[in-house]
Amino acid sequence: MDKLRALEYFVASAEEGSFAGAGRRLGVSVPAVQKLINSLEQALGVRLFERTSRGLSLTASGQGYLDACHPLLVELAAVDEALSRSTQRPTGTVVVGAHQQLVKHVLLPALPDFHARYPEIQLDMRIVNRTSDVDAGIVDVFLLHGWPEEADLVHRRLGHTRTLIVAAPEYWSRHGIPRHPSDLARHTCMLMRNPHGTLIDLWEFERGDDKVSVTVNGWLSSNGREVILDAVLAGQGIGRFTEVTTRTHLQTGQLVPVLSEWQVTGGPPVNLLYRTAQRRSTRVRLLIDFVTSLFEERPPDARPHPEPPHWHRTRRARASNALRRAR
Hints:
The chain is an alpha+beta fold and about 325 residues long. The chain folds into three domains: about 5-85, Orthogonal Bundle (Arc Repressor Mutant, subunit A); about 90-160 and about 270-295, Periplasmic binding protein-like II (D-Maltodextrin-Binding Protein, domain 2); about 165-265 and about 310-325, D-Maltodextrin-Binding Protein, domain 2. Helix content is about 40%, strand content about 20%. The protein is built from ten helices and 15 strands. It has helices spanning about 5-15, 20-25, 30-45, 60-85, 100-115, 170-175, 225-235, 245-250, 280-295, 320-325; strands spanning about 50, 55-60, 90-100, 120-125, 140-145, 155-160, 165, 190, 200-205, 210-215, 220, 240, 255-260, 265, 270-275. The protein has a five-stranded mixed sheet with strand order 4-3-5-15-6, covered by helices on one side. A three-stranded antiparallel sheet has the order 12-7-13. Helix 1 packs across helix 3 and helix 1 crosses helix 4. It is elongated, with a radius of gyration of 24 Å. About 30% of the residues are buried.
């Protein structure tokens, strides 16, 4: 039995959730994958997968074996690449997992430049919200908003993008412009729900020593940012968005910010995460450096490393519940 190939087939089957998926990924037949996995299980004397009509699931032994094997294969790939990079251009695939708005507004506009520099590197872009999402297991590099706490990943905080209160010009002309954050309580606000399910109906502001917390309301909420953005662009209400993901709409005048003398607090920083061993891969390192440079070119916020808002880890249904309890 080719042990190294068997490990590659095993990891691919676990990540794809089926022998068919592993076969497509590796460019081999399904019987070839099954045969080698069966031989591996016989050699180890344990069952690595539970086979069902819905696909594969790892046994407890299989999960432990996967956790042990994956870093070894990454190390081996890094060694292979290190030996060949002096005479070859960087090649291979980098799997990127990122929030949809960061893909759309930050990565996609810049990636043609990366491709022009490194035309033989392929990028597999996965939309993920957290490092625990289904697709996250095969991701090499994460770019995520928020406050992730992953002990087994290298974590770089790339910066804190400014958060703005915005609406379409027609909304402001119909309902008037708020002069103080407390005025927002009388407006229609489109509300986001974070990946933990908390409705972000508590908007907080600072100006010098003044701090204001406002419980806002509206007829539409969603865990999909684009849903809320489209409603705001259509003049249906007010939104709370980061500047980096609304820059185009601001430049064209489709969105108009208000309360600019106040700092909107609680906005999420941007984070780059990757496994330690991946830094030794030339193609991964090149992408890490490229993405980092995108944020180094942006002007820093006045508070580049904010702490998460006080309601962030409470898993409450509404962020405003934390304010009520404090009272």
